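COURSE: Structural Biology Practicum
ASSIGNMENT: Worksheet 4, Part C
STUDENT ID: 0417
INSTRUCTIONS: Below are two proteins. For each, the amino acid sequence is given first, followed by its structure token string. Answer the questions at the end about the second protein only.

PROTEIN I
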Amino acid sequence: DVKGVPRVTFDIEDIDGFDAETGHWRITVQSSETDLATQAVVLRVIYTDADGNTAIDEANMADTNGVYGFNPANSDAFITFVDQVNKEGTDSVSTFNTGDTIFVRTHAPDGTPLEDVTITLSYAPSVGQGALLRTWSGLSYDVKA
């Protein structure tokens, strides 16, 4: 049971930002004071689409439909997540914690290069208080993160 806003630090870097096929931002959890439930972590990407409209893509990090356990090398998904699974005896337990990595493509699903992107990462448990963990804004495919 986490009280208040969990303290989590992140690193973000752009990888091949100009490449529509492989370009992505890599967000790595540098440290976390507590394990968070993977299924309660939600990433939202806000950007302008090819028609000039605001688009919002959202993904739950536990979504096994192309998000959880995938990365840009093995999935065409816009948002993917690689979990550093914890071992508890013979069980593997998924938590959102140090070493976990989120990938967000630098081009929209239709291939449009993304500019002035905002990414928000939230902790939204079904019971209890949620929190905004981090916001990155002003991200662009052609600007170093």
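PROTEIN II
(use this one for the questions)
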Amino acid sequence: MAESSTLTGTIRDIVQRHGGMPTRLLQILRDIQDRLTWLSPETLEGVAEELGISPDKVHSVAEFYSFLYTAPRGRYDILFSDNITDRMLGNRELLHYLCNRLKVGVNETRADGLVTVGATSCTGMCDQGPAALVNGYTLTRLDESRLDRIANLVESRIPLTEWPREFFEVY
């Protein structure tokens, strides 16, 4: 019961921060996801109720945008850039390499909830590719050696703030 009232309070706070305006639905969903990491069916229903709009509208917006997650994501959410330049640099092979190292399928969250590995259309780092994002932070110049280090950090549950700074350097 307390969990439900906490969820309701979170939704209410964020909706109120956006003035309770249905035209701010996308921003509201993004802010809620930032707080909760994903948008559960209960969350989407709560947003619809708070905004006084159709649950179908909220669900359709959440399902339309690839950056909104309607299924749980891992503590470490890794997205490889999948543009043509990154493909030419071997991103797909590296994506599968990391998935094998972490024992997780592509676009899946590992059973223990530790990690999700997938692809996104572009990270804006094709000049420093292959590139990826981990929890929204850019990783550049990926190769198997760097991915081995990343896999070890993930498996050891090391917070991103303690990862080597050179992983996040953008030139």
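ANSWER KEY EXCERPT:
Q1: The beta strands are 76-81, 108-109, 115-120, 132-134, 137-139.
Q2: The radius of gyration is 18 Å.
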